[in-house]
Amino acid sequence: MGFLVTTLIFLVVGIIASLCTRICCNRGPSANLLHLTLIITATVCCWMMWAIVYLSQMKPLIVPILNESE
Amino acid sequence: MGERGRGCCPPMDLMRSEPMQLLQLIIPVESAHLAVSYIGDLGLIQFKDLNAEKSPFQRTYAIQIKRCGEMARKLRFFRDQMSKVGLTPTARSATQAITSLDDLEVKLGDLEAELVEINANGEKLQRSYNELAEYKLVLQKAGEFFNSALSSAEAHHREYASNQGGESLETPLLSEQETFADPSKQVKLGFITGLVPRDKSMAFERILFRATRGNVFLKQATVDEPVIDPVSGEKVEKNVFVVFFSGERAKNKILKICEAFGANRYAFTEDLSKQSQMITEVSGRLSELQTTIDAGLVHRGNLLQAIGEQFEQWNLLVRKEKAIYHTLNMLSIDVTKKCLVAEGWSPVFATKEIQDALHRATLDSNSQVDSIFQVLHTREMPPTYFRTNKFTSAFQEIVDAYGVAKYQEANPGVFTIVTFPFLFAVMFGDWGHGICLLLATLYFIIREKKLSSQKLGDIMEMTFGGRYVIMLMALFSIYTGLIYNEFFSVPFELFAPSAYVCRDPACRDATTVGLIKARDTYPFGVDPAWHGTRSELPFLNSLKMKMSILLGVAQMNLGIILSYFNAQFFKNSLNTWFQFIPQMIFLNSLFGYLSVLIIIKWCTGSKADLYHVMIYMFLSPTDELGENELFPGQKTIQIVLLLLALVSVPWMLLPKPFLLKMQHDRHHGESYAPLPDAEESLQSEANHDSHGHEEFEFSEIFVHQLIHTIEFVLGAVSNTASYLRLWALSLAHSELSSVFYEKVLLLAWGYNNIIILIVGIIIFICATVGVLLVMETLSAFLHALRLHWVEFQNKFYEGDGYKFYPFSFALLDYEEE
């Protein structure tokens, strides 16, 4: 699974989550906007964390060196 | 004052505080009480004190408040009495009729008088009972003395009679000086009987001896059980004493000494038959008194029970009335004494509700005139009011703890709902611990209704109040735990096989040169091959430090963008052009560029040294980069960015003060100012002058801007470095976790002994809960909070508003507790 595919998966999950919130807690346009903002923020945070860890492992400069006992 | 921004940002809940308006209500006196009561039920107006200069005694309704205070005192008295008996007031029942204040006052007065009388009578009866009980003891013990004296006298007499022959009964007693003297002989011996406390008995004896020069005879007998002293009401150990004396002076001395020692005296007759009669009489009276006392207690118990059923309701009524009169005192009374004028802040959306409440009050009080509802225009800053629900209120409190938002500025609470648990989770990352935290908080959430009505201790109260915060923290921790691949510090190959394999099938080089990356990158999170290797820490440290910088730069950029939205909302184009833009340029040309370099280095796998690149960008920007070049044209771009950063500093500092001065001069130079509106607030007329022409001190503005610029420029470096605490705490957490796992659990497992294993498991659980789940949670909570309060909020938040605190009966409960 490449970088782009997983990014697309995050995007799709975010869209599905916002649709779900719109369906089950629809409380007027201002509240909906708040919920949307929260979902977008959460998606962006989670994606950033995943992307950072993934990118750092794509072309590693150091490799695991096992301990003697193992 | 800002008006709603057009178009670009549609209104979002919780982003800005509710629009407020200053109301003026003119209420006729007869409906004032009801009107304030209905407004208290609504809880949406914060009244201004229009009588601030008056002392509490000069206010209109001071007498009413005193009455309420009296009633509250009586209710407190009842509560004391009830708790002495062990009753607790029953919960409020809605079925009882609500009495008026006057009726309640009379009723409370009657009840208090009755209760006081019952108490007084009870005390009196109890005292008589105790005295009689003591008297009975005296009768018994002293009777024993005389009986034993008599019997020994008889014995002596018989002996003597056998020796000598018929003499009277009393003679041998007289001739033997050491034996007991018969008190009925004509040597005028008197005696006093009574009880003296045991700890004073020695001193009592000594002083009697000294005072009468040894001419008394004292006999004491201890009483086995402690006796209730009639005067003090406590149980005291006492001795029964009989003291024989001769003469009037000795008698007076002895009486005084008895008084001094608190020895109670009781009359005693020597006659045998009378003694037994007295004893039966006293016993009879004792049992009578006992029944009377019991009946009294039952009566009192019933009275207190009846009070207890209505207590909560009465309490609530008195508190409500007191609050209503306090509020009425804040209204100013019109000259004609026919109506009251009220001023207060209320949210705009509550207009209809308030008008309805006023109308209902007019109808219910049969008043002829309706209340007048007016909106005033003023330049004062309104209070800040956010409509939160049980989920968002905890986050809003976290933000408010640092400073309440200024009226209608952007509320960081919106983003805090997500970023705060997220940053916590970055520092906490372990999905095993996250699951434990989630289970603990789900317990609170499931039993929400029951726990919210109970009274919990301080710490439990705080934990319960923050249950939704902790739930989000736990959910994000599970996510970051999966990314860091730590389950109680153990990694798992959950998503795909590890990317690292041995260089050759025998794995000879595994401990010297290491593995190589042969498969695709591990798709979700840190590769499980890293755990326990020698190069784990260099890799993870590099990863986590860079992650902290990237997350920090992102959050700080969000803060600056929020300041742009504020500038748009308040139509402050100066702030947009001369604060927002140079700030963005400065932060991003330095630290945004660093973030881009980090990403490029990861994507290309270059061996460039980023420290070197950043430092020499400043020290010698024109030098050739050599092997530190990450992309072509890097040198030119670095020089451009450096120049942009240098230009943005005077851009932030200089233009704004001068432009503000020009603006002020333009306003000042106008020959006439607009007429003030007809409907001005009563209070603002007094201080109109001070608000109308604000002083403009150029030097002050310039210094303020200088401080702001220096703070931002230096803060850019220090705040970015401050985000490295995300790395530091996450490292600490994972190290602690792996120490507990390896050195406790695995060690205990290695012994192959069931007892050691159980002890090991217990120690592991205690250490995990105590250190990791409690201490680390608090620590990460604190640091995430600091990152929000300082590094995020100082980019845009002013936080110098005041909170909306309406007059509401629902809030009375919190006040009293």
Automatic annotation (TrEMBL), chain A:
Membrane-crossing residue ranges in chain numbering: 32-55
Signal sequence region: 1-17
Main location: membrane
Database matches in InterPro entries: ATPase_V0-cplx_e1/e2_su
GO cellular component: endomembrane system; proton-transporting V-type ATPase, V0 domain
UniProt cross-references to Pfam families, sorted A to Z: ATP_synt_H
Gene Ontology terms, MF aspect: proton-transporting ATPase activity, rotational mechanism
Cellular location(s): Endomembrane system
The entry's keywords: Hydrogen ion transport, Ion transport, Membrane, Signal, Transmembrane, Transmembrane helix, Transport
Superkingdom in the source lineage: Eukaryota
Membrane topology, record value: Multi-pass membrane protein
Record family assignment: Belongs to the V-ATPase e1/e2 subunit family.
Protein name, per record: V-type proton ATPase subunit e1
Automatic annotation (TrEMBL), chain B:
Top-level taxon in the UniProt lineage: Eukaryota
Pfam families for the chain: V_ATPase_I (PF01496)
Main location: membrane
Regions crossing the membrane: 422-446, 467-484, 547-565, 577-600, 636-654, 754-775
Keyword Ribonucleoprotein: no
Annotated compartments: Membrane
InterPro entries reported for this sequence: V-ATPase_116kDa_su, V-type_ATPase_116kDa_su_euka
Keywords: Coiled coil, Hydrogen ion transport, Ion transport, Membrane, Transmembrane, Transmembrane helix, Transport
One GO BP: vacuolar acidification
Cellular compartments per GO CC: vacuolar proton-transporting V-type ATPase, V0 domain
GO molecular function (one): ATPase binding
Coiled coil regions in record: 94-128
Entry membrane topology: Multi-pass membrane protein
PANTHER family per the UniProt record, alphabetical: V-TYPE PROTON ATPASE SUBUNIT A3 (PTHR11629:SF112), VACUOLAR PROTON ATPASES (PTHR11629)
Family of this protein: Belongs to the V-ATPase 116 kDa subunit family.
Main function: Essential component of the vacuolar proton pump (V-ATPase), a multimeric enzyme that catalyzes the translocation of protons across the membranes. Required for assembly and activity of the V-ATPase.
This protein's name: V-type proton ATPase subunit a
Organism: Sesamum indicum
Biological classification of the source: Eukaryota, Viridiplantae, Streptophyta, Embryophyta, Tracheophyta
Name of the coding gene: LOC105169682
